[in-house]
Amino acid sequence: GLQGQVAVITGSTSGIGQALATALAEQGVNVVLNGFGDPAKIEADRRALQERTNAAVRYHGADMSKPQEINDLIDYAVSEFGRLDILVNNAGIQHVAPVEEFPPEKWDALIAIILSSTFHASRAAIPIMKAQGRGRIVNIASAHGLVASPFKAPYVAAKHGVVGFTRALGVELARTGITANAICPGYVKTPLIEAQIVDQAKTRGIPEDRVMEDVILAAQPTKKFVEYEHLAGMLLYLVSDLGASATGSAMVVDGGWTAT
Ligand code: NAD
């Protein structure tokens, strides 16, 4: 079982990362949380998760755009728990604008936080997992790792990069006992998406309720948001022993979006 294993989940103070960290802690996995936010809320959430589960829950505030802080995050997990079994690269941001109006510094931030952080964290984790003879790297990509939408070119590029990196990592690590997989969610109603509804309304010049119906859920044949539990189900499969043959894959959980 997963009981007693150790996981780092980047970007887990909100949304999908927080839900995935919770799902792991509920299985008895000791977790290191990471991400930005109000320190008092982060500490209250950390404590509540630890009290509600029989997992030890820690927090490290590494900025995932800074390689040295990413190394510190992985070192912290090992110094707290003596091992590292699961790395979930989830931290992400979004900015929506036409390419010719896209601020170059936002391009740099998107590539750093979504794509380069996945490289730096994996690079730091792999020697530890190799020494243990087992490991699980799960990168939260997106349906936008497989298909495109307008006004999100840097995000689409970064997520395609995450899928490509994951494939390469899966192949490279295939004989080590470490698997590397991506999960490609469709739309999930997180704070990131709520902010995007506001942005898209401005960019497209339409009201917010129409963005939800005509832009967001239009993409998904189910006409429903993907639920946190459905992503947690895929994560728990990938990190378990049943997931041992899945590597280098892009697992799609998108309400049928990329099938259309
Ligand atoms: P969110 O905004 O709710 O959470 C993002 C998390 O990343 C937060 O904890 C935030 O503090 C953290 N973060 C942002 N910048 C960081 C940095 N520089 N250093 C450390 N942490 C940082 O967003 P979410 O919707 O839960 O997104 C999580 C992941 O899932 C992202 O990679 C996103 O691209 C991906 N995703 C989301 C959706 C969706 O519909 N919400 C769909 C597909 C993929």
Automatic annotation (TrEMBL):
Keyword Oxidoreductase on entry: yes
Domain of life: Bacteria
Native species: Phenylobacterium koreense
Family: Belongs to the short-chain dehydrogenases/reductases (SDR) family.
Keyword flag Oxidoreductase: yes
Protein's recorded name: 3-hydroxybutyrate dehydrogenase
EC numbers on record: 1.1.1.30
Keyword annotations of the record: Oxidoreductase
Gene3D superfamilies: NAD(P)-binding Rossmann-like Domain (3.40.50.720)
Molecular function terms, GO-annotated: 3-hydroxybutyrate dehydrogenase activity
